[in-house]
Structure formats: structure tokens, C-alpha cells
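Please check this protein record:
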Amino acid sequence: MEVILLERIERLGQMGDVVVVKDGFARNFLLPKNKALRANKENLEFFEKEKINLEAKNLKLKTEAEAVSEKITVNNYIIIRQASDTGQLYGSVNSGDIKEKLQEEGFSIEKNQVVLDRPIKEIGHHEIRVKLHPEVTSNISIYISRSQEEAESLIKGEVTNAEAVKEEAVNLEEIFDEGAVPDSVTDDEASLDEDVNDNEASEEEVTNSETNENLSEEEVKEKSDT
């Protein structure tokens, strides 16, 4: 379907562009959201007549969005969740959770304005995009933690217990890979192990030698008796 865009649509076009889109996308999103018109003679004439008004309206909305962006980006947003010692959440944080947090802080944000590729599943600092206008996108800082104190540590850039445990687990995994020698084993310790093995081998040789000598003495005694 050919449509006339009434505002900028990411990866599609600018206001006034005539583009071809899938019928479902037009019927389910662009047309009911007043983001586009069917590209026919009547609507093309309407757009040309209303173009100045539409551009003025868009400029007003863009200016308002930029003002919101200045406010929304200066805050740190904390979401408290239960998590394991390694920082894995018991559940996840999705765009709906972030929307609710922003609304609690006084911002009129809808779920579809929060750009999140996948749910967040671990504690820590996460940069999230929020689309305030087709031409205005803001990055906000979300801190997910198990307590207010832990969140404050994250904001200060301090290493939390969960991060320390996670880092230690990664280090141990690297150290004890198949065939790897732990870094904690020094050359002296390795040399000591070799000396111990050599001593054990020498003791075994002595024992075998003594056994052979005893057997020889018994053979000599038997011959004398005969």
C-alpha cells in the first residue's frame, strides 16, 4: 500500500514522503495512529493544503520532547529486584517495568516508547533508549539492584558483591579449563612436585634391588644344602 507520511518514521521516511508499506503495517499501525494517509489524489491535495499546519504542529511537539529529554536524562532510575549471588534476576525487567518507573517519576511515557531489544535479566547499570518524538530519542540510566544501598554503590561505580562473585566465577572457569595449569601454581611448586615424583621412583628402584638381592642369597643357600 502507498501512504503519505504525516511525521518522520524511523527507517521509512520523513513527513510528506510517499512510501510503499505492507498492508498490515498500514492498517494496524500507520493509519489508526494518524501517522500516515492513503496515497490517493484527495489525500495528496489535503496534505499540500495542510502541510504548513502539520509542520508547525510537528515543530511544537518536537520542542516539547526536547524539553522533556533535558529532564529525563539527568536522573538515575533505580529498580529493585530479587537476584542470585551472581546477579542473575529471579525473573526480568521489561519495557513495561521501565515505563512504570518513569511514570512514577512524573514522565508521561508509554510502553512502546521504551526501546528494549530483550528483557534485562541481571543487576547492574543499563543504558535504555526512550523515543520521545520521531526526531528526539533520549538515553536514560537504569540501575537494577537488590537494595537501595547496592544501587547507590552501582551509581558510584563501586564493585558490588554480585559483580565480585561473578568475576571470581569467570576467573575460576578460565583457570580450570581442561588442560590448563592454575596461575596460582608457581614454578617452585611445580619443581617440588617433580622432585617428589623422582624420589618416589628412586625408592621404588631401591626396593626392587633389595628384593633381587634377597632372592640371590636364597638361591645360593639352596645350592649349598644340596
